[in-house]
Amino acid sequence: MLKKFLFSGVLLMALALAAPQSVDLSVSVVGGIFALELQDANAFPAAGSFDLGSLEPGAAEFPVNGVIVAGCKSNTGRQWFLQAEQVAPLTDPTTGVRLPDGSILVRGLLSSRSPGGQDLPGNLIAAEQRITARPLTVYSSTFRGDAGFNNYEGTYVPLNFGVRVPGAMPQGSYAGRVLLTLTE
Amino acid sequence: MKKIFLILAILSMWAQAHDITVSNIIDLGAVYIDSGFYGDPPGNIELSITTTGTGQAVIHAGIDERLTSAENFQLPADSLQWQVYYWTGKELNQPFKGEILQGGASSWVPYRRGSVPIIRINEVVNNYKIQLGTTIRRVPAVQPNGRYTTKVNFEIDDF
Q1: pTM of the entire predicted model
Q2: How many domains does chain B have?
Q3: Do B151 and A29 make contact, defined as CB atoms within 8 angstroms?
Q4: Cα separation of B136 and B112, whole Å?
């Protein structure tokens, strides 16, 4: 009997102490973004062009100044892709001579923009690839659009561009254009 | 037997010396990506503290989980924050009868998971009210759209 009373008393006390009050709190996030912002290697807005310097015929090089960081921003929560394509082949405007398709190269670099240099969550091309007139996927996000990565501030994809110069290529100043596209 | 009843009754009264109630639904409305909610009235949480006696008490607060959507997207940790806006007697220039245990008197403090002591009240009169403001520091640039919810828990213990 005594034990019963003691047990009941302790139970009542426990109930009295364990009575948290709760607030259901909600907020609706609105707005949309699907954008690509290009930066240079120092996180400044990219000028839109860079000079890869002088290259020897027969060489394939990735100059250190050939870096573009593609800031990919999508809040759709769905998978997206970063693609590169050649829209103008490397051509010397004075002679009209142009390098063959696929002379412009690209490869992915390890991310240096995420907290602690964290690896990108999606798939980044590692080995060098040729850029042609056909869109090449250089990075694909996770199925949830890299949700949560970089504290939802976007995925910054560092790309290094290079050129493969054929051995018999005449000397000259060649310029071309590569288009980067963010797509779902 | 009577002694045991008496002891239990006293212990039970001691255990229930303070009680706390809160407004139970808070809808902050719509917040645009890359912006924040800066503590407008819809976010105010009013804590009503009642007591059967006097004495010190500690209010604990915590969240079950970060603000989370139905698709399981989450706002970053530290997004949801509180600050003491109002207490009984403030309009009469009476000082706060206690101590804010996290942050300063006018600081925004993130809610933490679990139960964290946030305010100590040194002198509790019968009906004491504390109003907490709410802010969401900033919704990140690529936060997916949706309704994000969480549960904020409050409890009060004798000190």
Answers
A1: 0.81
A2: 1
A3: no
A4: 14
**Domain residues for B146?**
2-158
All residues of chain A having their beta carbon less than 8 Å from the beta carbon of residue B59 are none
What is the pLDDT confidence band of residue A85, given thresholds at 50, 70 and 90? Answer: very high
Q: For residue A145, which residues of chain B lie inside 8 Å, CB to CB?
A: 142, 144
H or E stretch covering A90: strand A81-91
Interface confidence, given as ipTM, is 0.84
Cβ–Cβ under 8 Å, residues A126 and A108: yes
Mutate to test the interface with A, among B32, B80, B129, B142 (most CBs of A within 10 A): B142
- Structural domains of chain A sorted by starting position, each given as residue range(s) with its CATH number in brackets: 33-183 (2.60.40)
Pairwise CB contact (< 8 Å): B11 & A19: no
* Beta strand ranges found along chain B (DSSP E): 18-22, 25-32, 45-51, 57-63, 80-87, 98-100, 109-110, 116-121, 127-136, 146-158
- Per-residue pLDDT of B109-155, as tens digits, reads 999 999 999 998 887 666 788 999 999 999 999 999 999 999 999 99
* pLDDT per position as a tens digit, A96-111: 999 998 999 999 987 5
Pairing of strands A155-164, A175-183: unpaired
Give yes or no for a contact between A125 and A175, defined as CB atoms under 8 angstroms apart.
no
Report yes or no: A127 at the B interface, CB cutoff 8 Å: no
Q: Looking at per-residue confidence, does B69 or B25 come out higher?
A: B69
Taking CB atoms and an 8 Å cutoff, what residues of chain A touch B153?
Answer: 20-23
Q: Place A143 in a pLDDT band, splitting at 50, 70 and 90.
A: very high
Interchain proximity B143–A73, CB inside 8 Å: no
CATH assignment at residue B59 = 2.60.40
* Partner residue facing A21 (CB), from B25, B34, B155: B155
Tokens encoding A102: 């696929």
